[in-house]
Write a structure and sequence with these properties.
Layout (H helix, E strand, L loop, with lengths): L2 H25 L4 H9 L9 H14 L5 H13 L14 H5 L8 H12 L15 H20 L3 H18 L4 H11 L4 H25 L1
């Protein structure tokens, strides 16, 4: 295997790792291990731009946080993403259908579209989770799974399959992530009382946006 191919495979594994990190933060409340990791240093980012600014904001939110930060962030997660204490009006529950359906309902057309993509790629969401497939975490995990599969295809010398999956990712990122994540971010800013989740939403959007641009460029080459 050439050094260039090794680098490409490592890049795909790195993308999978980042998408899994993003998915884990939006799936449930943070735990001690996640907070320790995020406190340690700013998240990886280019030297400048929205991702860098968001990474630094995340780091500051922990560096300046009070001792009970874990409890405060768990309360904030419940308020933002589980709509705890929200009895009327808009919410920030992280399902694509809520933001793209005309009436803001769960289980809308977006969910059906996501299910179709998952089935086509043989990606399943554990039914025991009892959650619609268009949850932000599941969509981000889809990007992680397909990044790993691209790495596997490259390891097997299957460039055609790798290119096909890159095209699937580019389309999914634009049609089922970037089309609603900015709207979710606005709701997060409305409900958040701590600095972390708005900053993390900004980081996630910037990462996906940069990644989609990279995918488009890679496919063009």
């Amino acid at each position: 295997m050439t050094e260039e191919m090794s680098d490409r495979i490592a890049e795909m594994r790195g993308r999978a790792e980042m998408y899994r990190l993003l998915a884990s933060v939006f799936y449930r409340e943070l735990d001690d291990e996640q907070i320790a990791t995020l406190k340690a240093a700013p998240l990886a980012a280019p030297e400048e731009g929205p991702m860098k600014a968001a990474s630094e904001a995340i780091y500051r939110s922990f560096r300046l946080a009070p001792p009970d930060v874990l409890t405060r962030l768990r309360v904030d997660y419940a308020r933002i993403f589980l709509a705890a204490g929200v009895y009327e009006g808009d919410t920030a529950v992280p399902f694509e259908s809520v933001f793209t359906d005309e009436e803001g309902n769960l289980m809308g057309e977006a969910r059906e579209q996501v299910v179709a993509v998952f089935r086509a790629e043989e990606v399943t969401v554990d039914p025991a989770l009892q959650s619609p497939e268009d949850h932000l975490s599941f969509e981000l995990e889809f990007m992680a799974i397909t990044s790993d599969r691209i790495a596997e295809a490259l390891e097997a010398g299957n460039e055609e399959e790798a290119s096909r999956l890159l095209a699937v990712q580019e389309r999914f990122a634009r049609e089922h992530l970037l089309n609603w994540m900015p709207m979710l971010a606005e709701r997060v800013r409305t409900f958040a009382r701590e600095a972390f989740y708005p900053a993390f939403m900004d980081y996630a959007i910037a990462f996906v946006d940069d990644d989609a641009a990279w995918l488009e460029e890679s496919l063009a080459q």
